[in-house]
Amino acid sequence: MTTTAGSTTTTGKGSVTLSLHPLVIMNIAEHHTRVRVQTSRVNPVYGALLGKIKGRHVELCNTFEFKLTNDSPSTTTTSTVTIDMDFLTKKLELIRQVHPDLDFTGWYTVESKDWNPSTMSLFYNQLSSLNESPLLLRLDPIGVSNELPIHVYETIVDLGTKIDFIEISYTLITEEAERIGIDHVARYSVTDGTSDTSIVSDQIAIQFNAIRLLYQRMLMLLEYVRAVKEGQLERNDDLLREIGSLCQRLPIINTDDNNNQMFREDFDIQQSDVALLALLACCTQEISTLNDYLNKFQAVHDKQQHSSGPGGSFGYGSGGRRMVRGTGYFPASFV
Questions:
Q1: Is 300 exposed, middle or buried (CB count within 10 Å of its CB: 0-12, 13-18, 19+)?
Q2: Could you give the C-alpha distances from 59 to 22, 198, 295, in angstroms and in order?
Q3: Could you give the CA distance from residue 192 to residue 269 in angstroms, rounded to a whole number?
Q4: Domain extents for the chain?
Q5: SS3 breakdown of the chain: % helix, strand, coil, rounded to 5?
């Protein structure tokens, strides 16, 4: 079904209740911040929402990014944005193998308060095959409010002509792991009171200096190997063996070509080994479950044999009827 661009946004009581995990907000904010730093400008970002659907209650638990098939991913208009549905379908299948209780519940975007709801109808037309009424979560990156800049909308098609985005309320719920993560982020996001930099900035600066020092030392070793190869310096076998051992521990990645054949082969082998271990773990679990079932079945079967009388199990005769005192009998279904 294809709807027109005549979409409207209203505020009212939706037909579903919603629970929101902080992990969803953190993932969306990280996605927006990463794109903002990489492109040096504000670009809309889009992704899928994963959650648990129980009747008319939806619990949003996690997200992942969309893969767009347009030629210019950094475009600021959504009229040319197309979602790679093959990638999305395969991604959902892999997620269901690990988390079978998670379903596709909608999509998210990062837009200001001046967003145009009509452009979101294009996403609805592409995603309605996965969920007939997907939710839309909008994060306002520049909104100033005492509340979270999160707006969630329920999509309802009005007579097949336009989409109504009805804003619904939500409640925040957290798990123990999320509370620990949020507390860790909060501790590293505050300033010390004497400067404008946060603790996380200091931590990133320390890691950056360590990586820069490692890069400089690697360049020094590279120059040494080149000098030994050209005969400018004397060969030191002990030092060359240590350099060779260090190279063996580094990932085989060519920075000029990310499709390095040697790296891809090693990566595919490692990925296959991990998948095989996961499959073996699943098989072991299934065998253990089957073994428990057989033990319980054997125990029940032995108990029935000990409890059976001369007339058959539990006093039933060979004709499927229960014997009683006297000459009368009743069918087993009536007893």
A1: exposed
A2: 11, 33, 38
A3: 47
A4: 8-187, 199-249, 264-307
A5: 45, 20, 35
Helices (H), the chain: 22-39, 85-98, 117-127, 176-187, 199-229, 237-249, 261-307
| Residues 264-321: tens digit of each pLDDT | 777 788 889 888 988 998 899 899 999 989 988 888 888 777 766 555 544 444 444 4
Q: Identify the three-state secondary structure at position 303.
A: helix
Handedness of CA 207, 210, 216, 217 (dihedral sign): negative
DSSP code, position 82: -
* Residue for token pair 């260090």: 246
Question: pTM surpassing 0.70?
Answer: no
Closest CA to 184 of 22, 33, 29: 22
Q: Are 49 and 135 in contact (CB under 8 A)?
A: yes
Of the candidates 66, 94, 67, 104, the residue with the CA atom closest to the CA atom of residue 271: 94
- The whole-angstrom distance between residue 28's C-alpha and the CA centroid of its chain comes to 12
Three-class DSSP labels, 236-265: CHHHHHHHHHHHHHCCCCECCECCCHHHHH
Rounded CA-CA distance 292/298 in Å is 10
Quickly tell me which residue has 């404008």 as its tokens: 196
Tell whether the torsion through CA atoms of 112, 118, 122 and 123 is positive or negative.
positive
Neighbours of 189 (CB within 10 A): 11
From the options 3.30.360.10, 3.40.140.10, 3.90.660.10, 3.90.550.10, give the CATH code of 8-187.
3.40.140.10
